[in-house]
Write a structure and sequence with these properties.
globular, mainly alpha
Amino acid sequence: MTVDACAALVERGDPDRFLAVMAAPLAARARLLPLYAFNLEVARAPWVTKEPMIAEMRLQWWRDVVAEAVPRAHEVAGPLHRLIQEAALPVDVLDRMVAARQWDVYREPFADDAAFEVYLEETGAGLMWLAARALGAPDGAEPVVRAYGWAAGLAAYLRAVPALEDRGRIPLVDGRPEAVATLALKGLMRLQAAQKAGGQVPKSARPALLAGWQTEGLLRQALRDPAAVADGRLQLSEFARRGRLLWQSATGLF
């Protein structure tokens, strides 16, 4: 039950987020990796089985892990439990992260735009806030971090649209190019609002925001070329990816 096990899981299952962790200071990595491994385990729980009941049981197991005072002997649950205690992480936010993944279990589309936005709020924004909180961000920074996390979650979700469709899901309420462009613009507006208020996030917590280093580039591409989402072309060049991560890690800006 070590952080090394969490690092191995994230490296295999979430390579982009692993790169972000490796760009963070060593002390920050020990707190980010259990969270990111937890996110990975929860995110893939609905997809490891075709039986909805089993998927629901997997998600409930993680909800129990979060709620229990005694840690379980598990390579992710153990380090996560220690982090919850040490950083006083809000258990309700962790629980809502898991609960939101119930949508991934079934094939029904989101009821409406509001339901989709709540999904991003509880997953992408929730994870970003937990990461920042783990690194000492004060309560006052939560709206800024969540706005950035929502935009980052949207960018990542848009990249996943083709894979979700291949698995029989209806990922977007409205998949027409003009609707995708509107969604990308909404994400950019949240991103810009977060950037303007970025001074509210202390320097010590900035490594938590490295995971969103591709956000602006991806959303601008989706706004300019919304068909890239459905076509699976939504991605940055390797030069742009590496350059943006290097810039953000060096400056602390986002």
